[in-house]
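User: Structure with zinc ion, tokens only please.
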Amino acid sequence: MIAVNQSGYVTKGVKHATIAGAKHYELHDAKGSVVLSGDVKLIHDENSGAEAGLIDFSEVEKAGTYYFTDEKGSQSARFVIGRKPYGDLYRDAMRMFYFQRCGMELTPEYAGKFAHKACHCMEARVLKSRPARRQKLLGGWHDAGDYGRYVTAGAVALAHMLYAFEMKPKAFDVSLNIPESGSGIPDILSECAWELDWMLQMQEKDGGVHHKATSMHFADFIMPEDDRLVPVMTPVSSLATADQAAVMALASRIYEPYDKKRAAKYKKSALLAAKWLQANPDFLFKNPSDVHTGTYEDRCDADERLWAAAELYLLDGKDEWIWLIRQILEIRVNTTALGWADVGGLAAMAVLLSPAGTFPKDLRTRFKELWIEGADRLVTIASENPYELAFRPYEFHWGSNMQVLCNAMVLLFAHHLTKDKKYADYARFQLDYILGRNALDISYVTGHGERAFKDPHNRPTVADGIEEVIPGFVSGGPNAHGGDTIANRETLKGKAPMCCYADDWRSYSTNEITIYWNSPLVFVLAYLGA
Ligand code: G3I
Ligand code: 9MR
Ligand code: ZN
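Assistant:
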């Protein structure tokens, strides 16, 4: 078997594939002529449990469609070599957020055959409010394959894309064919505003932010507009409030040149959340025991407060935020983590993207040192296995593809800081894995790749009665720790970590989709100029 990036490879870039269970390869052009061949030394690969080897075909630069064969007769997926090999992947990865919109009719003009009526327009019940109250709560993105809306998950997805926008604004001159297209505001900012404006409604007058808005239990597999379960707003949490302070401060900076009114609202929300954080230094969150939906539980809010402190310092310049940053750095928060639970890396991005001289020099140096250390660790791990994946076997857990893409973000940001090409190359290898260069020979992005996954754990996809799946959704990917009946079943037990995956809508712990598994892909493709 020869696994390739099933979208393709950039003409002048590094081009690697992985052969497993065979030794001799032949690279064919579209007409079947052999343009390159060779033998590969195989080594044992812990992640996939196979004997595998690396094929370097970087010398092939002629644009066209290609495929590999090996001596056992297997044929790889076809792929292209070209200047822009990923086609509409970047646009589709961003359009995913439009399909996650809650509270809006998705019309055929923008959603094609995946159009549906507006959903969840009912008032939300504010849990544990005295006196009991309900309130308007409209908009936001459905989190994932469920219809819940979660502040921490939304804030991280927004941050991935807004920091990418701050670094590479020109990369977002892309029309997404959404209702706001042509408004003069970059489409990605119009899309992000759909979530940001919903988050404003999740904030109490004292600045505290409700953790999530979901029904008391998950809806059945019905279309969103048929879900009549009332959303409840669970109590305020420091996790949501800190994330809100950070992402609203970031958004106020990004939107200022485009929409002053909105930027002002976001700034106000950030400063209000900051007040709550200062008044509640030791507050955490407990998911109410009678609310049976996603918890996004997190036993430590130090990293969320670190991110908030970094962004609030950029907003109001108060020294107390520098003091707080120094305090939190003492407890060794992971300052390259970019996932929904650990956001220390977002704090580092805020500091390192700010103009020189904004933060004290020693802090900036410390964040940069830690970042390069983290990136070098990923390069070392990736260089030791034939898939060049920066993963150890134990890292394949729920949402492993998010971690792969966040690792690619770490490597690309290291390239941004140093211009060292090795970081960009190793970041591309992580993207290659997502797009097909893996032991399952599958592309983990719907509609992209000859062998792309097609059966996500996603309520509209299951309920809409349409055979075709919306393109551009990223699967959670292999999970060696189980978590649902399919994943736990014999078929996945005893398999190597990289193979613990089922393209089956019932497997939510290996095959769901979420907004913060798509957002790192947007960051990576924006940076690579896809
Ligand atoms: O980090 C630990 C690791 O140290 C340990 O070795 C490993 C094995 O035990 O577990 C790792 O933590 C896992 C964590 O995901 C990694 O991010 C937890 O076990 C696992 O339970 C957790 O799963 C989360 C899942 O909700 C269940 O809580 C996923 O991250 C998270 O993406 C997912 O989020 C759901 C929402 O709740 C509801 N909406 C859909 C969304 C996606 O499935
Ligand atoms: O559909 C739910 C998915 O979004 C969550 O990530 C997952 C874990 O919280 O739960 C899914 O809902 C399942 C529930 O947990 C167990 N009964 C079956 C539900 C639908 O698969
Ligand atoms: Zn909805």
